[in-house]
Design brief:
Helix content is 32%, strand content 27%. The chain has nine helices and twelve strands. The mean pLDDT is 92.
Length: 262
Amino acid sequence: MNNSAIQIKNLSLDLTGKRILKKVSLDVEKGDFVSIIGPNGAGKTSLVKCVSRIHTGWSGAIEINGEDIHKLSQRELARQLSYVPQAEGRNLPFTVFEFVLMGRYPHLSPFTSISADDKAIVFQTLEKTGLGAFADRRLNTLSGGERQMVFIAAALAQGAGILLLDEPASFLDYRHQAQVVQLLGRLHREEGITIVSVSHDINMACAQSTRIMAIKDGTMIFNGTPEEVADSETLESIYETPFVLTPSPHRPLPYVSAGGAA
């Protein structure tokens, strides 16, 4: 029985005449929480955009739950996989409820209308993400952290078993970062959602993930456990800068800091 949620084989991608990804292979099992780390410009975002079919024209193979991604319609893909881009200043003219309701589109057809069940799922999702009191608020009245939670809620409303995120906590203050981290951990533990998250925060990645992969210059150079990546030599080979690992009484793995900082 195939237990792969996402299987990538020899994925290569060229953008504007430059090779961005070079024969990347990765197998994400159902129920995994995989964090993708690596230097800026390494190809991390491009990888998840290939899997979510934002980027096309790549070579190699991608399978979602054992099916060739090329054989899936956009609606079929959206029923299996949802994508949350980086937090940014996206102010769209919708209420929170209206925007999250759009996440139900893979389950609708041109000949069906929004059902009571769809609305119930949206309200349940808003409660699950701590946004119940925000249902009638317009997106342009929310903080960046609140909007990011709304985008995650819309992805969850799709009902897909795979969630892709591109640096979901970047540009957020500490409180909203903590909320995002706690929510993703709960979704993984309690609902068994398969999560693949691009992260620039090594400590956050180690604390959340079951596995970590690292991309450098478009090539996957590490694929292992948080315990294995929390090693100064391994991290230096990925980022080409020295690291210090400091034991912490509050976490099983050491705290990672770069550049010889204490």
